[in-house]
Amino acid sequence: MSTIPDSAQRILRQAFKGLNGFMLLNWRLGLGPYISFWPFGIGRFMVLNHIGRKSGLPRRTPVNYAEINGEIYITSGFGKVAHWYKNIMAHPHIEVWLPDGAWQAYAEDVTNCEQHITIMREVLKNSGFAALAGGVNPHTMSDVALAQATDTYRLLHIHRIAPSTNEDGLGDLVWIWPFIGAVVIVVWLLGKRRNSA
Questions:
Q1: In a domain, 170, yes or no
Q2: In a domain, 135, yes or no
Q3: Other CB atoms closer than 10 Å to residue 113's CB: what's the count?
Q4: Is 51 in contact with 61 (CB distance < 8 Å)?
Q5: Greatest CA separation for the chain
Q6: 161 CB-near residues (< 8 Å, 6+ apart)
Q7: Fewer CB within 10 A of the end CB, N or C, for the chain?
Q8: Which parts pass through the membrane (predicted)?
């Protein structure tokens, strides 16, 4: 992020890394489609399933996105240094989790496209507090100011290819809700029995 010092960027990267774990847990619990209820405040989220360029291991990264005319766009606020950006540039065939399910997809860097600033503004609006934390206000900045503030950002077009049959990890922890419900009922019944004794 070009508008803040390198030391602040490092702090933000660490903060977002911690937040990413929480976001992934929500998707695994089946809550992923619901955490985007307030895009301008919290953000609109999807998950990238990609391959580590060095390790060859699967990686998952939650990111903010905008859907424009049925097309999905994301941005790398830390530019080319973001590990997930490097990974998907090395292996652009990815899988994404969206509110409507898992999709096979292809990632393309379109940073220099004609509608770059218009699209970037919409993605950043859907980034909620994350854009503001990076010193960017997409709601009030002029096109010129936004272009200057995001000069190191990368804009990516996520081309959905087909629904994915591989949903490993997507909602794999939803079983916990009936378990929690059963525990709550048992505790309530035991409490009721104790009170009536």
A1: yes
A2: yes
A3: 15
A4: no
A5: 75
A6: 103, 104, 105, 106
A7: C
A8: 173-191
